[in-house]
Amino acid sequence: MRESSHHGSPAGGSSHCGRLFLNPASSAGSRQPGPHPLRRGPPAPPPSAAPAAAPAALLTSSSTGQLLSKDFSQINSLCKVPALKDGDFILSESTAILIYLSCKYPTADHWYPSNVQARARIHEYLGWHADCVRGTFGAPLWIQVLAPLIGVHLPEEKVQRNRAAIDRALQQLEDKFLRDQAFLTGQDVTLADLMALEELIQPVAVGFDLFEGRPKLAAWRERLEAFLGTDLCQETHGLILNILEQAANKKIPDPAPEIYPYMLLRISRIP
Length: 271
Fold this sequence. Notes:
Layout: E1 4-5, E2 20-21, E3 39-40, E4 57-59, H1 64-67, H2 70-75, E5 80-81, E6 83-86, E7 89-92, H3 94-104, H4 116-132, H5 139-149, H6 156-178, H7 191-205, H8 215-228, H9 230-241, H10 243-248, H11 260-268
Helix pairs in contact: 4-7
């Protein structure tokens, strides 16, 4: 699950709102094995308009206009997705949302284990992920696709600096976390693997195949995608993996002028 704001998507154009439905029979705090922690529902209105029958709604994508609207700002004042509305409880930030859903609703224990040390390993990864992966691995998408939408072209030295930062992070990912394990924190899939895959897929989408020449990392991706299911991975990553083709065919709408300052701020943060 990637964090995205009005300046974090090929913004300005329309997109659908994704809503994930949770088991209404679940009680707070209950956790038990299940086939899948979530089941994806059809496109739906923003959480504020969700029908009462839905116990929780998760907005995962939206148009720029919706994110900047007064209604959405009441759900998330940061004006970015994902945002969760579970009854009167509202939560932002993808990591917090995944942990909340794993704790409150019945999920297979491996996603966010009840064992405190196994859980600590997930948080160890997520702490490193926030420092070394978030932002760094999204930069190629900004450099090649999003920045040019508003006429900004970054110098080659920034491109190379970002590539070097990605290479360092990948080596640390393999040496510190993956090692000789099947997944990042052990032999089972966890939330850590989901967070990692969603970031690592972004450079791949713009032609930087960071799995090439890294057989251990490539094998991890294959195991994870096989576990999640090919159809789900294609559905989740299909749009971003076609982003270069969309850009080449001028199918990405121009960003709305009011979000230029936010996009420029994000671009300025690329070291």
